[in-house]
Structures are given as C-alpha cells and as structure tokens.
Amino acid sequence: MYDVAIIGCGVIGAATAYALSRYENKVVILEAENDVADCTTKANSAILHAGYDPAPGTKMARLNVRGVELAKEICAKLDVPYKQCGSLVLALSESELPHLQHLYENGTANGVPDMKILTKEETLAMEPNLSENVCGALWAPSAAIVSPWEYALAMTEVAVRNGVELRRSCRVEDAEAMADGGYRLTTTQGTVEARYVINAAGIWAEKVHCMVEPASFHITPTRGEYYLLDKSEGTRVNHVIFQCPNELGKGVLVSPTVHGNLIVGPDAVPVHGDDTSCTSKGLEFVKATAQRSVPSINFGESIRNFAGVRANVDTGDFVIGEAEGAPGFIDLAGMKSPGLSSAPAVAKEVVRILEGHGDLPAVKTDYRDGRTRVRFKELPPEEKAKLIARNPAYGRVICRCETITEGEILAALHSEVPATTIDGVKRRCNAGMGRCQGGFCGPRVLELISKTLGISPLDVLQDKAGTNVLLCETKQEENHHD
Questions:
Q1: What is the pLDDT of residue 382?
Q2: Residue 43's Cα: distance from chain center in Å?
Q3: Considering Cα of 307, then 341, then 324, then 178, what sign does the dihedral take?
Q4: Three-state DSSP class for 186?
Q5: Is 292 exposed, middle or buried (CB count within 10 Å of its CB: 0-12, 13-18, 19+)?
Q6: With CB atoms counted within 10 Å of each terminal CB, which end of the chain scores lower, N or C?
Q7: How far apart are CA 85 and CA 250, in angstroms?
C-alpha cells in the first residue's frame, strides 16, 4: 500500500509530489495522459500573477502571493526559464481608474509588494506601444513569466529521483474507501491502494471527487484561445499587459514569453470536457480585444494558435482540504488562475494536512534536490566546443529555428521523466517551438524517438494517445484500392 496517491500530474500534482518527496513516505502519481503537464499546465498564459486580483481572505489571495515567492526560488534551483518582468493593469477609460484603486487595495491587503498606480505618462514611458487611450495603470513588479510545462516537469523529475513513482497513461476509473482506512483506486493499469488520496485531476476533479462522495462544488471547463507570435513580435511589450478584469476572469493579456515570443489571449468559453479546438470567432475576439491595449501587434507574425481548458469552479475560491465524509481524500480542485502561481503554496497545504494527522514522516537524509539542463545555444563558444568534444551529438543542430541539438533531444529522451512523443521532446528542450513549428525538425525528431525507444516510426505519437504521425495501409487495403 502507498502512503499517498496523487491523481493528476499537472503543475498542482507535480508541486505536491515535489513537496512530499522530501519525506520518508511511499508516493505514487497516477496521470491519465502519456506525459506530465499535458492538459491545462501546457496551455495557459504562463504568468505568475502578483496577487492583487483575488479577494482578501480567500485561499487564492493567500496562496497566490506565497506561491509566487516560492516559484522564484524553485525555478532558480531547478533551472526553469523564469523572468520577473512585472505586470501592468491598464485603465483604458477614466471610468476604469477606480478599479485600479480597488485592485491596489486588494493587493495591499494580500501582501503584494511594491505596487504603484501610474499616470498615463508614466505608463506610456514604460510601454510606448500601448494605446493612447490609456489613462493609467497598476504596476506590480513581482509578477513574472515562466515556462509552465518545464516548471511542472522539473518538479516531477526531482520527485521521481527521490523515490516517487510516476505512472503515465494510468487513468483512475473508480475509487472506494476501504474498511480499515485508505482508498482502493481502480485504474487502467490495475488496482492501487493508498492511505491518502490527493485529487489534483484538474477539470476532472469534480468527477474524481464523486467517486467517493457527492461533490459540494461544480467545475465548468472553460476554454481560452491564444495567439503565439514569432520572436519578431517578442519585444512589442516588455511587461505583462492586462486590461481591467471582469466576471469572466483576468481578460485578454499581451505578454512576452520566456522563450522570446509574444503571447496574446485568452477568451473564456464554457465547453464540455477537454475541448481545445480553436475557432475563428474566439480568435477574432482575442485579436480585437488585445488591440485595445496594444494596437500595433502584427498578427501576421502568428506562428501558432492553441487553446487550453481551465477548471472554473462555482465556489469562487480554490477547493482545498479533506472531502466531507471521506477522511484522507484531499481535494486540490478548482485550480483556475492563479493556480499556476499558487502551485507550490498549495502543495504545502497538503503537507500541513498530513502533519495535522500526525502522518508526516521524517525528512529524507539523502534527499537530492536541484536540476540543470544544457541549453546549447546559450553556452559561450569555448563551452560549446568542450561539450561537442565530449559528445559529438551536441554538434548536430536538429531544430534550426531554436538551435536545438541532437544531444539535447537525446537528453530529453533519457531524462528522469523521459519524453516519449514529439511534443514531449518539444516541451523538454524546445525542438519544434520556433517559427516553422517543427516543419523542418519534426521528421528527424520522430526518427530519434523511434531509434532511442526501439519502436516503429508508425508508433511514434505527436502528443496524446492516438496522434500517430505516420500511417500505413495494410496489404488488404492496398489490394482493395487497386
């Protein structure tokens, strides 16, 4: 029997595994997809919010500010791309200026540091490409941008290194309380028994909760569509640009990314399940709304459109704690924005719950923290030469757009949580992340996956199950076509 079973390995599950891996306990992560961070965590705005938006006194307010502080430490320790660029919330009319004051007061109550309300002139001095309609802005220097999938992956890798078991393609289909305590989970890979269950199942958290008890919360999956623009637009703004938020969320933002691109979005549309389709209506809305903030964005430089689905919950706050009537079943649900920002602080809530039960074991004496990753293009010339001398694979550039080498791709295929798909490689080392979106390097990455994993090229996936890149007609089908 496991001490803890974590359902879901998005950023919340990953952060929880990372926190628990410090202790002498037996932990397993059950992830339905074939990779970590493969749902909401891979498709969001990649923002670590300062924390002025949540209402004071809520879990969101408390955990957002602390989570951002912890994220800065974790990203430095685990070599995760991170930049504290700060954010601006724009008032685009005089009538919106009082809302900036409201957000400032929220942030002050929540403990957000160093905020300031700027005049129109101060705002345009910081961001000259903003609309002339700007009347002022709320400046929050503690906001940051991050690589969200690598953030989750890095925490998972350290957790696995320290004994946490990760089961991918392991969907939980049922759960029941056992007579002598703990839970029996029925999964697509057999039965798992654990004394504690952490429900970090994202948009499916309500469904998972209802396996053991009726839920007192309701999750509405809400899709947000985005533009990702080429690096030629990456300096259009230098800070995260928000408009005044509304009842649908923080609204359409314009932001640089840690990889040097520009991201624009999202909208907010309720959907059924994990519907990540993009629509002309949604993208037109995103474009028109963003141009109210930054009119000069060249959307002709878009290299990709994508959508993510977030778990909007009817409680108005994160759902964190043991389920009523199900002791030891701990919900981490409703993790919409600022879920990414709050993740490591949410994980510490789990540690506190276990500690309250007297069930937090000793800290491991041989715990191995930290992580580094080779980014060949960022190395000085002499370091590149030394690396190539040791391993010639680093001298072969596979992804020309991002200057990613064969050595980096092979490292992604041999890591503590190895990639098994083309997009899995992409999330680990950026191959295919550039202007051509894998059009040039994709076939070579497929070849390396096939050779390294010892599988047929026909079995190599783009991303999730069923996304085979290559198909082959059977002989019978060929004869039929003849």
A1: 98
A2: 7
A3: positive
A4: strand
A5: middle
A6: C
A7: 18
Contact, 395 vs 379, CB < 8 A? Answer: no
* Residue 473: predicted pLDDT: 65
DSSP 259-280: TS-EEEE---EE-SSS-----H
Give residue-wise pLDDT tens across range 419-467: 999 999 999 999 999 999 999 999 999 999 999 999 999 999 999 999 9
Measuring CA to CA, which residue among 25, 30, 34, 36 is closest to residue 1? 25
The residues that are catalytic are: 49
Asked whether the predicted pLDDT for residue 478 surpasses 80, the reply is no
Position 92, amino acid = L
Report the length, in residues, of the chain.
482
- Which pairing describes strands 87-91 and 240-243: parallel, antiparallel, or unpaired? parallel
Say what the pLDDT of residue 247 is.
56
Phi and psi dihedrals of 338, rounded to 5? -100, 55
Tell me which H or E stretch contains 110: helix 97-110
**How many DSSP H helices and E strands does the chain contain?**
13, 22
DSSP labels, 111-174:
T--S-EEEEHHHHHHH-TTS-TT--EEEEETT-EEE-HHHHHHHHHHHHHHTT-EEESS--EEE
Contact assessment for residue 16 and residue 308, using Cβ atoms and an 8 Å cutoff:
no
With CA atoms as reference, report the closest residue to 120 among 111, 108, 128, 112. Answer: 128
Q: What amino acid is encoded at 86 in this protein?
A: G
Rounded CA gap, 237 and 386, in Å? 37
pLDDT bin (cut points 50, 70, 90) of residue 472 is: confident
464 by Cβ neighbours in 10 Å (0-12 / 13-18 / 19+) ranks as: middle
Quick one: which of 136, 285, 234 has its CA closest to 434? 234
